[in-house]
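Researcher: I'm preparing a figure for a lab meeting and need a structural model of a single chain. I don't have an experimental structure, so a prediction will have to do for now. The sequence is pasted below. Please return the structure as tokens so I can convert it later.
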Amino acid sequence: MHGSEEKDRLHSTPEEDPRPKLMPKVFGSLAIVGMMVGLMIGRLTQPDPVELQQVEVAADGLVVWFNQEPKVHGEHIDGTIALLFDAQGRAQNGQLQVNQKTVNWRVRLADQGLLLNLVAARPLRGEWSASQVDGRWRLAIHLREE
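Model: Understood. Here is the structure written out token by token.
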């Protein structure tokens, strides 16, 4: 035991193992397989996204149809009505009549989902209610002038 150099193999330094190290490869493979199985299970259990199907003009407002119940946040802002839906859909716009006055509505894509704006020449007030009809969600928006 005078040093670590190999002269006659009679010292305390162990020899280098010529066999490959398989345990890191086994653990790496198990981690990858576990991640892939977890992603597949997550994809199978993920619910369908909420989607705006159509917007209909009613006698005193709008009726908005979704494939399932959306999260809705609504506000009255300076005489306009803004409804934010946690849903997907396409941008659209139109007009309707409330007390023989024109009300413009527009659905546009926002960062958090879809934004429905209702604007008229006079300040508007609105009430909305949701219900399930034939497996779809119907959000009725009733408008009146202030």
